[in-house]
Amino acid sequence: AQSVTQLGSHVSVSEGALVLLRCNYSSSVPPYLFWYVQYPNQGLQLLLKYTSAATLVKGINGFEAEFKKSETSFHLTKPSAHMSDAAEYFCAVSGGAGNMLTFGGGTRLMVKP
Amino acid sequence: EAQVTQNPRYLITVTGKKLTVTCSQNMNHEYMSWYRQDPGLGLRQIYYSMNVEVTDKGDVPEGYKVSRKEKRNFPLILESPSPNQTSLYFCASSGDFVEQFFGPGTRLTVL
Q: Which of A47, A105, A111, B39 has the fewest CB neighbours in a 10 Å radius?
């Protein structure tokens, strides 16, 4: 069975500061890993995905994530937070039966001026 | 524009009154899926479909039904809704069975 743990349900940073959102996963098969962002009252938008190519994955809006197999982690980072980054972020792993995406509980990112 | 659409976007109903939430995609995707989102739990899969007439249970299928008679449509049916089905529902589709594209969500309240 797959699982995803996102450490910290709420993260607060100052504008311009580093954003680090943590994600650890477990999977019995080589995983595909995803980060999605959800803005208020909107659906999920794909930020980036890891599909067994380069371990450092660059996504939209300046975000990137690094796949570390030894640590079973896929943390999301952005060097400098912007007010528009305030949203909820979900890490997800795929590879189980029926292509099911298993999601973490989500991390709400708040950006202070 | 390539998209997944859901209707209605908002729905308030009462316990036991059958309802259907529609989902349609215009990307010719074979794979479609339904998730529910609850605070602190992320999204959990309800049902999925690998192709027309092929559906299977996800993590939380109890109280839900689906059908896949056409490739583009994947309705979610609640035959006797209960308050614990109050949630935010998302439909998704995939063409490569890797990346899933999500609809805008349907917020359901069951009184």
A: B39
